[in-house]
Amino acid sequence: MNRKFFFKNQLWHFLSLPILIIVFYILASPYLGVDSFLNISDFHWFWLCILIPVTHQIIVWFVFRSQLTYDLFTRLFGRWDLVVWAIIFLPFLPLRFLSIAFLGLSNSGTLPVPRTPAMIAGLALLVPALYTIWSVFYHFGVIRAMGGDHFRARYRDMPLVREGAFRITSNAMYTLAFLALYSIALFTLSFAALIAALFQHIYVWVHYYCTEKPDMEVIYGAES
């Protein structure tokens, strides 16, 4: 494979990232400085909500592209490559949700919405999100969800998943699962958490278009 592929579309990734961070900090900053949770201020929780997905997605880009172009993880870890990758990848998923929750608890009451409508809206968003998370575990599989097709041919040969939430949209993980982040912000009535949730949701689509979509075109033969 052409080694130049390692950086394909990453210029757009790394150009858009600082713009997103600046814009979303400007949106959140008037609502920060309210309180703290676990002796950590909402200001610091907000930046953790930014740092965690940024670190996660840069690591994913590096590992996915190094695996496709250099077979790096397999060369380093042999048959344990996916185990090592799971140890690196999986902890970031709960950290995304926990950081939003802790930000919400430290910034509670800043969202100018009545509590009852906020709770109803939060539940309405949580239902498809939880259904999607269940669908990923039951129909899609955790290994496949964390990029198993970058490591093993057997994952590349599997048919497309059309069950569960994937009947609604083929990219249910990005479209629906991230709705849970908005639910947390609504449950805690936190404006800053809502902004951080929106950042994470937009930034994961940057990952999709800049990293995952080109990878899929290579893996599944749409591009030589």
Task: Give structural notes.
With 224 residues, the chain is an all-alpha fold. The protein has one domain. Helices cover 69% and strands 2% of the residues. The protein contains 11 helices and 2 strands; from the N terminus they run H-E-E-H-H-H-H-H-H-H-H-H-H. The chain has helices spanning 10-28, 42-70, 72-77, 81-89, 92-106, 115-140, 142-145, 153-156, 172-175, 179-187, 191-219; strands at 36-37, 40-41. A two-stranded antiparallel ribbon has the order 1-2. Helix 1 (10-28) runs antiparallel to helix 11, helix 6 (115-140) runs antiparallel to helix 10 (179-187) and helix 10 packs antiparallel against helix 11. It is globular.
